[in-house]
Hints:
With 233 residues, the chain is mostly helical. Helix content is 86%, strand content 0%. The radius of gyration is 19 Å and the shape is globular. It starts with a helix and ends with a helix.
Amino acid sequence: METNNLTRNLAEKTAQSVLFRNVYTWMTLALVITGAVAMYMAKSMTLLSMIMQNSLLFWGILIAELGVVWYLSARIHRISFTSATLLFILYSILNGATLSMIFLIYTMSSIATTFFVTAGTFGVMALFGYVTKKDLTRLGSLCFMGIIGIIIASLVNIFLQNSMMEMIISYIGVLLFVGLTAYDSQKIKRLLMQDGVEINETTQKIALLGAMTLYLDFINLFLYLLRILGDRK
């Protein structure tokens, strides 16, 4: 009996380790795809002009991005793991297309510098969320409310065009996504480290959804930091 419990516990620990490693593998793969698409499109003025000069196409891509995230989040348990993976890849490609325009605004060196700053900050906060014993649920709730606030403030600033307000929003955005990274890391850890966890399609989809959550945290943190650290052309 004791041997069976030990074997089962070892199998659970192994499954948990594999699933958590998959979260960061899929997140990294998505970032690589997004970066590759963005850089490829930035080198093609034809493709960039198509997006910039055709507002219908630009908004169509943005709506498609939101639609993919919504569909994947809402129906993750009803679709197959293969379908979920393909949707995640599609979202990474679409996001790369919209992010390609940052190469027209900021210098390559400042984009690279900001990326490494983002990676370091993200890594530290993800590790903190993983190892801390403190419950970060309240922090996560505050960050979600804060994000709603800066979305509203950003929409208002579209009409005001106030550079000081934009900078304040950027600093607040950095703080919110730093906190959200730690919270999401802890949340994913708890989901994947429950008793009885094994590697199957359901847990693989949970890990994939966790990867998309952290991917979104990284991208948003990068964009807010770029507004602060980026050198405009």
